[in-house]
Amino acid sequence: MPETEPLVVDFPLRRPGEAFPPPRYADYRSRDGLVVSYLPNGNKCWLVTRHEDVRAVLTDPRISSNPQHAGFPNISETMGVPKQEQIPGWFVGLDSPEHDRFRKALIPEFTVRRVRAMRPAIERTVDGLIDGLLAAGNSADLVADFALPVPSLVISALLGVPAADRDFFESRTRTLVAIRSSTDQQRDTATKELLRYINRLVDIKSKWPGDDLVSRLLATGSIAPHEMSGVLLLLLIAGHETTANNIALGVMTLLLNPQWIGDDRVVEETLRFHSVADLVSLRVAVQDVEIAGQLIRAGEGIVPLVAAANHDASAFECPHRFDPARSSRHHVAFGYGVHQCLGQNLVRVEMEIAYRRLFERIPTLELAVPTQELAFKHDVVLFGLHEMPVRW
Prior knowledge:
Layout lengths: L7 E2 L14 H7 L4 E4 L5 E5 L2 H9 L3 E2 L33 H9 L5 H25 L2 E3 H6 L1 H11 L6 H12 L6 H24 L5 H8 L4 H32 L9 H9 L8 E3 L3 E3 L2 E3 L4 E4 L1 H4 L34 H18 L4 E2 L7 E2 L8 E3 L1 E3 L1
Parallel strand pairs: 1-2, 3-9
Antiparallel strand pairs: 2-3, 4-6, 5-13, 6-9, 7-8, 10-13, 11-12
């Protein structure tokens, strides 16, 4: 057990102008045991920052993903993991064996083989967007004009959603993930609007099925009709915002480190280096459990900090250096254990194609503003860039 009382720290909401991951994460890792924090609602939670400890939390059966349990560390009423009565089918908020039923139904949609078959369509999507960039002139906002549309169009095609509805999904998703610039009421409204749209989509696909994920899930009957909207909303959000942020941050990083342009190892290192989903893997102890020598009582919340784990020097040499030559496949950017991201194969392919085609077709691409003027997302759950002015 740690010899001293645990350090009490502010909850790690990002601060404007602060580096990410924040330097204070290294201080937390250097201390014995864990550090303790308090959510905006006053509930206690433990922050886990070491790579080994994060993986231990994400695989321990005494630690739950289910927000039904008292003490679950949701950041606010509408930001975090919804309960099943709020959004049935939001399966990341379930533990085994309930969680396994959803995962088993969805795994065939995201296998390496299935994603490989999607490559030509993804390449056409990426090339079409680059055609648009080139036709519009010699400058663009790479976030709005490229990074956001790539995953939006890909996930829309996967779900059978018309491409014309992309702006609707993007605007509602941005509202959902904003911490400071959206209110609970605004996020609640955005969720209801997305669910209404998805319910209509499911109804259409049940009558006129096509070659898409929704139609295939309906045909198997493995997911109950009232759960479909929650499953699809989860896939939509998880498959859109995180990928867009990784694409934009990866392009920025390559522009700052041009020696790595064209190296496919960039994808894995970008995932580790930027760790956009730092505050996503929320947990609660359902039994007393010891992590890093610290006793965590049943009913206490746990927040594994993914970015802290992926910058742990005991797991990655010189972690603050962007080095695609390193072996970084053991990162936890996609989580770890039974809740590891289902769509990780798809995300990797989208990132790889986006980087390769963008720099092949626009070799003179450069940032249009100094990096210190870039608008980073300090007000949202998922780290990224609000805008990225570029020129060529």
